[in-house]
């Protein structure tokens, strides 16, 4: 009886967590969703990835809007693996796994008219959270600042954050 109770509690918890992740993704602005999707696309092409991943939560968001329908986006977020296999197209039934580490991602890119621009090339860096080093964090900031400075804008990380 106790085992059945624990199974029911764990099932409910998994459902709530996956629903919260989808709700968190749905609450992102379209420009930030595009960056998450860019990271998910890159992750799905990696040969070592065996699971389907979903957006878990944002850590840092910032953007600069210099005008003329241009925005510079920086988004630091976590992706969590699910019980679904890589390549799953319908993820409503995919529940987060708690036995695997999340993937820590940072993306930065320029948008024009709501679309990600090819130049400057978008920067996407994702790594399992336990492997993320301070050097990698510093490199991320440098790479993202290059995107902004290349166009004469202030640093992305000095802009307003949500």
Give an overview in words.
This protein is α+β, with helices and mostly antiparallel strands. The protein has one domain: Nuclear Transport Factor 2, Chain: A (Roll), CATH 3.10.450. It has three helices and five strands, in the order H-H-E-E-E-E-E-H. Strands 1, 2, 3, 4 and 5 form a five-stranded antiparallel β-sheet that branches. A hairpin with a 2-residue loop joins strand 1 and strand 2 (70-85). It is globular, with a radius of gyration of 17 Å. The model is unreliable at 1-19 (pLDDT under 50).
Give the structure's gist in a few sentences.
InterPro entries: Chemerin, Cystatin_sf. The protein has three helices and five strands, in the order ααβββββα.
Annotated CATH topology:
Nuclear Transport Factor 2, Chain: A
What's the order of the H and E elements? HHEEEEEH
| CATH class descriptor | Alpha Beta
Radius of gyration: 17 Å
| Low-pLDDT residue spans | 1-19
- Compute the number of helices: 3
The percentage helix is 25-40%
How many DSSP-defined strands? 5
CATH architectural label:
Roll
Organism: Periophthalmus magnuspinnatus
GO molecular function, one term: signaling receptor binding
Subcellular location: Secreted
Keywords: Chemotaxis, Differentiation, Disulfide bond, Inflammatory response, Secreted, Signal
Layout of helices and strands, plus pairs?
Blueprint: H1 2-26, H2 30-44, E1 51-67, E2 70-85, E3 103-112, E4 115-116, E5 123-128, H3 134-149
Antiparallel strand pairs: 1-2, 2-3, 3-4, 3-5
């Amino acid at each position: 009886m106790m085992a059945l109770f624990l199974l029911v509690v764990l099932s409910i918890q998994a459902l709530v967590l996956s629903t919260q992740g989808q709700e968190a993704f749905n609450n992102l602005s379209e420009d930030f969703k595009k960056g998450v999707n860019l990271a998910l696309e890159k992750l799905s092409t990696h040969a070592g990835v065996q699971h389907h991943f979903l957006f878990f939560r944002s850590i840092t968001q910032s953007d600069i809007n210099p005008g003329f329908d241009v925005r510079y986006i920086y988004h630091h977020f976590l992706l969590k693996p699910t019980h679904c296999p890589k390549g799953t197209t319908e993820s409503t039934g995919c529940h987060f796994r708690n036995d695997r580490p999340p993937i820590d991602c940072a993306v930065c890119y320029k948008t024009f008219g709501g679309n990600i621009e090819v130049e400057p090339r978008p920067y996407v860096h994702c790594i399992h959270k336990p492997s993320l080093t301070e050097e990698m964090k510093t490199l991320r900031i440098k790479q993202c600042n290059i995107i902004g400075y290349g166009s004469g804008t202030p640093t992305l990380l000095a802009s307003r954050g949500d």
